[in-house]
From TrEMBL:
This is Phosphoesterase. The lineage of its organism: Archaea, Methanobacteriati, Methanobacteriota, Stenosarchaea group, Halobacteria. Coiled coil: none annotated. Its cofactor is a divalent metal cation. Keywords: Metal-binding. Residues 2-147 form the Calcineurin-like phosphoesterase domain. Belongs to the metallophosphoesterase superfamily. YfcE family. InterPro entries: Calcineurin-like_PHP_lpxH, Metallo-depent_PP-like, MPP_YfcE, Phosphodiesterase_MJ0936/Vps29.
Length: 169
């Protein structure tokens, strides 16, 4: 299982607890779409994750920007994820980024609004923010990679599923 997060906006720690903390610890891979904010938060995520792939966000300190790329392509069990924070990119630009990466799915954050959009060519996923949802519901995503598809869920930090989706590969 892949656990997908974004927009932690912390200063001292990962801001994970309960169900979500256990999910991060158990996930084969954690993908984070940026805005850890500080190195201490990034370090806290690394300490709890078996494996983590992340990008920096627009609120990252220079030290975080030195450690992480602004965008990347992540391969896991044959699935390809194009990862970016997404600030300054609209839906068309995110879809183009995904097509250029020959990705199965594009993961971005920035808006704090969890959601899934199927553009007809590629699926765009924003897991929302587990710790700083602003005026949206708090969220994260879980992805199960299968041979011909990716089964996904958007969840609240307590584990309540509020949307399910499938990405055909």
């Amino acid at each position: 299982m892949i656990c997908v997060l974004s927009d932690t906006h912390g200063t001292d720690g990962h801001r994970l607890d309960g169900h979500l903390l256990e999910t991060v610890r158990e996930a084969e891979l954690v993908i984070h779409a940026g805005d850890f904010t500080t190195e201490r938060v990034l370090d806290a995520f690394e300490a709890e994750s078996q494996e983590i792939r992340a990008v920096y966000g627009n609120n990252a300190t220079p030290a975080v920007r030195e450690r992480l790329p602004g965008e990347r392509v992540v391969e896991h069990e044959g699935a390809t994820v194009a990862l970016t924070h997404g600030d300054g990119r609209d839906e068309t630009e995110l879809a183009l980024f995904g097509r250029q990466a020959d990705a199965d799915i594009v993961v971005s954050g920035h808006s704090h609004q969890p959601g899934v959009t199927d553009t007809g060519e590629i699926v765009l996923l924003n897991p929302g923010s587990h710790a700083d949802p602003r005026w949206y519901r708090p969220g994260y995503a879980a992805l199960d990679v299968e041979e011909e598809r990716i089964e996904g869920r958007l969840l609240e930090p307590d584990g309540e599923v509020f949307e399910e989706f499938t990405v055909e590969r």
